[in-house]
Amino acid sequence: MVTRRRTYVLAGLLVLTGCLTTVLLARVLSTIFFAITVAYVLFPVSKWLGRHGLNKRLSAAVTTGIAFVSGTLIVVPLGAVLYLRRRDLFSFFQQLPPMVTIDVGGFSYPVEIAPTLLSARRILTDFAVDLAAESPVLALKAVLFTILVYAMLWRPQAPKKAAYRTVPASYHEVVNRLHQRLRGTLYAIYVLQAATAFGTFVVAWVVFWLLGYQGAFALAVVAGILQFVPVIGPSVVVLTIAVADLINGNITGAILVTVFGLVFVGFLPDAVIRPKLARYTTGLPASLYFVGFTGGVLTLGVIGFIAGPVVIALLVELSSLLTNERQGDQQQLS
User: Where does the UniProt annotation place the signal sequence (predicted)?
Assistant: First the structure.
C-alpha cells in the first residue's frame, strides 16, 4: 500500500513538473520537438559512424555537424537567391492585367488582380522585416537545436531505457510498435519528402527555363517547397502559370506548361524517387497525411508540419494495436 501510494505521489509530481516545464519552455518547445525528431532520423548515421571506428562523442559530433552544414547549405543559398531574384518573380506576376472579365451565362464578372498582387507583396515585405527582427532569437534557437541534437545522438539509449523502466514489460511491444511507426513517419517527412522536393526543384527549373519563363529558379524553388504539401503539391505552380498565360492570351504557352509541367514537375519526381525510398517508411496513406499536415499547420504553425502527421501516425498505430488485441480476445473466446 505504501509503495503504491509512493508511486501515485511520484506520478503526480511528474505531471505537475511537466506542466510547469511546458509553461516555462513554451517559447522553445517547437525547437525541442524539432531537435528530437531530427535526432530520431539521424541516429542511423551516427550508428554507422560508430561502427566504422568513431566513439560515441565523436560520431554524435560529426553527425550533428553534417546535419547543421547540410541544412545551412540548403536554406541559406535558397533564401539568398530568392531574395536576389525577387524582382524576377514579381515581374512574372506583374505581367498579368490589372483586371480580368469572366463571362458566365451572359453575365460579365470583373475580377481585379492588382490589389491581390499588392497585398501579397506587402505580406512578403512584412515577413522579411519580422524575420530580420527575430534573427537574434533564431540564432539562439539554432544553438539550442544543435546542442539538443548532439546530446540525443550521444546518449540515444537513455529515452529507451527510461521508457522500458516506466512501462510494464507486457507493454514493451506497444512501445516498440510506436517507435517503428514514429521512425517511419519521420523518415517519410524528412528524407523521402526532401529528396522528392529536391528532384522536383531540379526538374522544374529545367522545364521553366526551357519554356522561357522569367524567374524560373524562383518558380522552381516554390514548386520544390510545395512538394511538402500533400495532395496539392507543385501542380499548383504549374496551373497558376498556365492560368496566367491564358489571361495574357498565350494559349500555346498555357498548353505547353500544363502538359510538360504536370508530367515532368508534378508526376515524374514522385514516380521515380518515391518508390525507391518508400520501403523505409511505414506507408501512411496520403489522405491521413494531408489531414495531419493541415490540422498541424493550422493549429501549431510551422512545427505542425511535423507534429500533425506524427500524431496521426501514432493514432493509426494505436488503432491497429487495439484492433489486433480485440481480434485476439475474440479468437480466444471462440
Answer: none
User: Are 190 and 119 in the same domain?
Assistant: no
Claim to verify: residue 149 and residue 257 sit in the same structural domain: no
Tracing cell 524576377 back to the chain, one arrives at 88
Contacts of 187 (CB under 8 A, 6+ apart): 41, 280, 281
Collapsing DSSP states into helix, strand and coil, what is residue 29?
Answer: helix
Which CA distances in Å does 86 have to 106, 219, 224?
40, 10, 17
Given CA atoms 62, 63, 64, 69 in this order, what sign does their dihedral have? positive
Contact 240, 234 (CB under 8 A): no
How far is Cα 240 from Cα 204, in angstroms, rounded to an integer? Answer: 14
Determine the Cα–Cα distance for residues 235 and 16; give it in Å rounded to an integer. 48
Q: Which residues pair with 107 in a beta bridge?
A: 104
On whether both 173 and 150 belong to a single domain, the answer is no
DSSP state, residue 190: I
Q: How many domains does the chain have?
A: 2
Q: Report the predicted TM-score, pTM, of the whole model to 2 decimal places.
A: 0.68
The answer to whether the beta carbons of residues 254 and 227 sit under 8 Å apart is no
CA 291-268-250 angle, 5° bins: 95
d(CA 247, CA 253): 11
Q: Which domain holds residue 67?
A: 25-157
φ, ψ for residue 52, nearest 5 deg? -105, 25
CA–CA gap between residue 212 and residue 88 (Å, rounded): 13
Cell reading at 62 = 560529426
